[in-house]
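Could you show me just one protein sequence together with its fold in token form as a worked example?
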Amino acid sequence: VAHQIQSHTQSVRQCTVNLSNRRYVFADTPGFDHTYLSEQDILRIHHSPTRKQISCKPQTERHFYKHRITDNRMSGNVCKNLDILTRLCGSRAADGVQLVTTVWDKVRSVELAECRVSQLEANFWQPLVEAGASHRRFKENSSRCA
């Protein structure tokens, strides 16, 4: 995790972890709200030969979409990113999407956070959830992983 304010990831980076006799390959790709790269650049990177090699014939491919539960608004960029994710995954791949809320350790009002989750699932995440995506709460060490 970078500590600079500007975007850090410039290309596809791969990390392989062997755990309990299983091999996990994580690919870090630039996000659509990148400081310097355009959306066209990001799409090219996501569809690059390097990216395709990483996910070549996976047993299960998962895409993690992180959302800070402490965010009190859905900005235009966040909504646009969700729309792009929905269109990239389509209904056939949505079951491989994990919608992950983070920064639960910074929540001041659990009731308000639960209300935000309900709004996300019923409105903003609805197309993905209806197509098979699922929501998970990342609570452990979440302020370091947002």
Observations:
- The longest strand covers residues 13-19.
- Strands lie at 13-19, 22-28, 63-68, 97-102, 134-137.
